């Protein structure tokens, strides 16, 4: 069943769709790792530091930092410095919406 908003959308031109599909594919590659998904799930509820994320995931700070660097490079997260600590948050609205859907689909209590 198609909802009303889908039926009212204008068809996308093939070249624009190709470009959007390439962008979506890169976005999904960024999310396509269990550690990065868990990082984003944790950030979905608020800012976290590297140490907090490492403890949450049960992995080394350096491993978390590598994943954060990739997510920063892809502009999915951003950080703000507070003294010696960098607090990370989700900066991408598409990522925020995607994480809400994934959380509701896979993580929420039944």
TrEMBL record:
Keyword annotations for this protein?
DNA-binding, Transcription, Transcription regulation
Q: Does the keyword Transcription regulation apply?
A: yes
The record, for SMART domains, names: HTH_ARSR
**Keyword check for Transcription:** yes
Q: Where is the HTH arsR-type domain?
A: 16-110
The domain of life is Bacteria
Q: Name one GO molecular function term.
A: DNA-binding transcription factor activity
Listed name of the protein? DNA-binding transcriptional regulator, ArsR family
């Amino acid at each position: 069943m198609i909802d009303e908003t889908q039926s009212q959308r204008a068809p996308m031109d093939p070249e624009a769709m190709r470009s959007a599909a390439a962008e979506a594919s890169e976005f999904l590659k960024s999310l396509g790792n269990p550690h990065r998904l868990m990082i984003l799930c944790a950030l979905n509820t608020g800012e976290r530091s590297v140490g907090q994320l490492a403890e949450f995931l049960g992995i080394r700070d350096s491993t978390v930092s590598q994943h954060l660097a990739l997510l920063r490079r892809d502009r999915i997260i951003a950080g703000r410095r507070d003294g010696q600590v960098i607090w990370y948050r989700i900066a991408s609205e598409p990522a925020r919406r995607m994480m809400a859907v994934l959380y509701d689909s896979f993580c929420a209590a039944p």
